[in-house]
Amino acid sequence: GAVVSQHPSWVICKSGTSVKIECRSLDFQATTMFWYRQFPKQSLMLMATSNEGSKATYEQGVEKDKFLINHASLTLSTLTVTSAHPEDSSFYICSAPAGQGRSPLHFGNGTRLTVT
Amino acid sequence: QKEVEQNSGPLSVPEGAIASLNCTYSDRGSQSFFWYRQYSGKSPELIMSIYSNGDKEDGRFTAQLNKASQYVSLLIRDSQPSDSATYLCAVNRGRSGGYNKLIFGAGTRLAVHP
Q1: Which residues on A lie below 8 Å from B49 (Cβ)?
Q2: Which letter, b or e, does each residue of B53-77 get, where b requires 16 or more Cβ atoms within 10 Å of its Cβ?
Q3: Which backbone phi and psi does A102 adopt, to 5 degrees?
Q4: What are the backbone angles phi and psi of residue A86, rounded to the nearest 5°?
Q5: Is residue A83 scored above 60 in pLDDT?
Q6: CB-CB under 8 Å, A108 with B42
Q7: Concatenated DSSP letters for B38-103?
Q8: Mean per-residue pLDDT for B8-37?
Q9: What residues does A67 pair with on adjacent strands?
Q10: Which residues of A touch B (CB under 8 A)?
Q11: How far apart are CA A32 and CA B71, in angstroms?
């Protein structure tokens, strides 16, 4: 089945630093990937759509200059949290559709970010 | 109005019983509906997908969709303690999101007790 690999699985960083999270589709190509964020006891909130070869599209209220997304190839999207602050501490999850049309999303294992 | 609404629970059922999880959505243009299961600290895993009105069965799981009522449900038969998790309803954003941009409900926490 479709596998989405996300790295790192957890990271602790100091306030003001930047953190990069990678998302790879291992056995399929993904022209589109989606980045979600989940705070404790809350649901997944869509942050942005990562588009291969073009700019990402961000959901309302998500700062594009703070959450940099790069989709450099058909199998890799990265999310960089710039100048991280404690309120950015969350569970970040990437996902990709495994096929064309109405395919379900397959999720990476998530990255637990803690900003101290 | 939230785009996707679920009762947060917890829904507590005895082992062997049927668990019924419900979800309503606001976008009439939505065409794809999914149920995901999420264990604490883990990412969601796909349980069921449904695209047409009616019932769809897969093992102990049955998804039901009623587009006229904008309602989708998940039934879990013969519930097991291992089914205890949060169940997330996800709906594609029909107007502008294409097939794959999914919006999630807040999730219903299911607890199956022995």
Answers
A1: 102, 104
A2: eeeeeeeebbbbbeeeebebbbbbe
A3: -90, 60
A4: -55, -35
A5: yes
A6: no
A7: E-TTS--EEEEEE-SSEEEEETTEEEEEETTTTEEEEEESS--GGG-EEEEEEEE-TTTSTTT-EE
A8: 94
A9: A81
A10: 32, 34, 36, 42-46, 49, 91, 93, 95, 97, 101-110, 112
A11: 28
- Residue B98 — very low, low, confident or very high, per pLDDT cuts 50/70/90? low
Residue A53 has pLDDT above 90, yes or no: no
- Kindly state the tokens that stand for A71: 């989709």
In chain A, which residues have their Cβ closer than 8 Å to the Cβ of B32? 102, 104
**Spatial distance between the Cα atoms of B83 and B111, rounded to a whole number of angstroms:** 8
pLDDT level of residue A101 (50, 70, 90 thresholds): low
- Put simply, whether B63 touches A (Cβ < 8 Å) is no
**B86 pLDDT tier (thresholds 50, 70, 90):** very high
